Predict the 3D structure of the following.
Amino acid sequence: MTMKKLFGAATLAMAGGLASGGAHAAPVSVVTSFSILGDLVSQVGGDHVTVHALVGADQDAHVFQPRPSDAAQVSRAQLVVVNGLGFEGWMTRLVESSNYRGPVRVASEGMAHPLGMKDGDPDHDHDHDHGQEGSAGKGSEGAAPTDPHAWQNPLNVVSYVRNIAQALTEVDPDNAGDYRQRAEAYVLRLQELDQWVAQQMEAVPEGRRTVITSHEAMGYFGERYGVRFLAPQGVSTSSEPGAREVARLVRQVRDENVTALFLESITNAALLQQIAAEARVTVGGRLYSDALSGPQGPAPDYLSMMRHNVTNLKAAMQAVE
Ligand code: ZN
């Protein structure tokens, strides 16, 4: 009994000593809205953080419905990181209902050129949400809804990573040097990735760079690398495309030189398979647009996700029927 007590006291004293020394302080608990941000926080934070992504692998953040367990996760966090640009409209209510009082960092903040955004209206989520309703397809009237999928251009992710490093530094200033170093090392990998993607896409003749996907998730990628993406659904997956929209897309596929059609990991494949059959275009594979795969899949982290997508896009665009 006495021995046990002594042992317990010694263990406690040791743990206290280590914690105050800083080297083995408890990791910063970070909650992110979705899996891709989860990976980016892990890359910057390393051993100094534990990360929980609310919308996990292969899940769709556009239509996510938080559960009470998600509010509990948020309430225990020391830092919350979101994408912004209207991507996760459910997050505001979730944070409020969780009574979380810590920082909420917008990873896309300060990013150079958001797509489909009205000038001078960068953070108006409510307008954006209304704008999305009933205007998922192309050709709708009024201002285009903001495209939140900024991570599809690796150069935008440079802003994400630096914002994350800054946010971690504010919560955990002791490890500021590590965060800065890890972030800048990762920025170099993003720049390498950008160069590689550009080379891969330049190898495909321009006339063969038209591809169909489920929803408009690839706008930033298309703009950066000169690929044209057509989709039956808009920048959100929350509304189903109508029969007219699908018929127009099928016509477009026949009239224009569409080289491949890709399913997405997060959306129902049935609609795209119908379009593929009607327009007689082959399915080129599966793109990871809004979520990583599980650890055994082909896209367990951001860099491998981009490489997977690009490798498959290139192969499908170059394939000769
Ligand atoms: Zn999306």
